[in-house]
Amino acid sequence: MTPIEIGLISVVAIVFLIYSGVYIPIALGMVSFVSIWLMRDNFTLALNLLKIAVGDSAMEYSFATIPLFTFMGLIVSKAGLGRDIYEVMTMRFRKVKGGIGMATVGANAVFAAVTGSSIASASVFTKVSVPQMMAQEYNKSFAVGVVAGSSVLGMIIPPSAMLIIYSFVSEQSVGDMFLAGVIPGILLAIAYVGAIWFMGRFTPNFVGGRIVEDTEWMTKREVASKTLPTLLLITIVLGGIYTGWMTAVEAGATGALVALIIAIVRRSMSLKGFWEALLETGHITAAILFLITAASIYSRMLGLAGLPNQLQDILAGNSASFWTIMLLYVLLMLFLGTLLDTASIILIVVPLFLPMIEAMDLSLIWFGIITVVGAEIGLLTPPLGISCFVIKSTIDDDRISLKDVFMGALPFALVMLIVLFILIEFPILSLALI
């Protein structure tokens, strides 16, 4: 077999193994190692490339962003900042049809800016938001759909684990990727709020709910105590990166320290909780390092097979336009999103398209935002839909089925798709802050 044929078979084999339940890094690393061995008929070469991949991943300075931002997010979650932001947002939107849904989106957007995890957002707001919406007679599909849809903001608004993974795969600056995610994340949050208003106006039965008039307003002091800690963290992390005072690693370290101080001052975390946060940070960091190492050997395998160049030649030979290429890319992302998780999609697809995007003189930072938003739509679509499964497993309500979660998330997946095409048409939205 030719290297091209081996490369094509390897990509199909990786997708099949991951969908069959094989751990992602093992599927990537094992198939890539065997493919290099077969292409060059040289076991020593394959072993040496594996050693290089491990060394390059572990020694990368910017990799320190992962444990630092992960630790910060876990501490913030344990400190109860997500619940505080939600309470303030609920008070502000209480007299609007679908107001609690809008409050959930707003709180998720703010929470995303200090956690960077869709799964954490889905878990927190399922416990906080859904019971309140159900108590106020909201449609059950809408209640869980809002949480599912807005949870994906955690992977777009920085700090984001997916943006970090993309930055390693594409060899881009983590700080630049974070800044690029700010405007698209805010745009998506605004689009969600607009969609909820539209549904409340034109499909009130789908939204349901009743407006609560007798809720007492918080005092300015209460609002400040619930919002200032989170705003302080956001200012330190994103402000430090944007002004150039801190690198992404330094911002992560500072943010983690400030988050820990906030948790201590609020007396919201025990020594046991601190130890659990440390252990979970280690587990997540090790898992992502394993992913990045496997992705590194996979990229080398694709390069040896010549698949990226072959794909570029095919599209160039057919005189494919910019929009044709982007439509194909989005369709591929949507298809894989029904089968694989976001990290798998980024690790498998991005190395195939990067050389072509560079040859077209397009920004790899912009392409990263398009990739993450496109892949995140998969969190809301069956059969995998990780955010939907997290919500169903977290909520303790037999009245809500997995079908209700997926049906409720469908309008928000459509909104994401519309925003995705806006971001493709207007790259400046992703690049304005860089």
TrEMBL record:
<comment type="subunit">
    <text>The complex comprises the extracytoplasmic solute receptor protein and the two transmembrane proteins.</text>
</comment>
<feature type="transmembrane region" description="Helical">
    <location>
        <begin position="321"/>
        <end position="354"/>
    </location>
</feature>
<dbReference type="Pfam" id="PF06808">
    <property type="entry name" value="DctM"/>
</dbReference>
<feature type="transmembrane region" description="Helical">
    <location>
        <begin position="58"/>
        <end position="77"/>
    </location>
</feature>
<feature type="transmembrane region" description="Helical">
    <location>
        <begin position="366"/>
        <end position="392"/>
    </location>
</feature>
<protein>
    <recommendedName>
        <fullName>TRAP transporter large permease protein</fullName>
    </recommendedName>
</protein>
<feature type="transmembrane region" description="Helical">
    <location>
        <begin position="98"/>
        <end position="122"/>
    </location>
</feature>
<keyword id="KW-1133">Transmembrane helix</keyword>
<dbReference type="InterPro" id="IPR010656">
    <property type="entry name" value="DctM"/>
</dbReference>
<keyword id="KW-0472">Membrane</keyword>
<dbReference type="GO" id="GO:0005886">
    <property type="term" value="C:plasma membrane"/>
</dbReference>
<feature type="transmembrane region" description="Helical">
    <location>
        <begin position="277"/>
        <end position="301"/>
    </location>
</feature>
<feature type="transmembrane region" description="Helical">
    <location>
        <begin position="142"/>
        <end position="166"/>
    </location>
</feature>
<comment type="similarity">
    <text>Belongs to the TRAP transporter large permease family.</text>
</comment>
<dbReference type="InterPro" id="IPR004681">
    <property type="entry name" value="TRAP_DctM"/>
</dbReference>
<keyword id="KW-0812">Transmembrane</keyword>
<feature type="transmembrane region" description="Helical">
    <location>
        <begin position="232"/>
        <end position="265"/>
    </location>
</feature>
<keyword id="KW-0813">Transport</keyword>
<dbReference type="GO" id="GO:0022857">
    <property type="term" value="F:transmembrane transporter activity"/>
</dbReference>
<keyword id="KW-1003">Cell membrane</keyword>
<keyword id="KW-0997">Cell inner membrane</keyword>
<feature type="domain" description="TRAP C4-dicarboxylate transport system permease DctM subunit">
    <location>
        <begin position="12"/>
        <end position="427"/>
    </location>
</feature>
<comment type="function">
    <text>Part of the tripartite ATP-independent periplasmic (TRAP) transport system.</text>
</comment>
<feature type="transmembrane region" description="Helical">
    <location>
        <begin position="412"/>
        <end position="433"/>
    </location>
</feature>
<feature type="transmembrane region" description="Helical">
    <location>
        <begin position="178"/>
        <end position="199"/>
    </location>
</feature>
<feature type="transmembrane region" description="Helical">
    <location>
        <begin position="7"/>
        <end position="38"/>
    </location>
</feature>
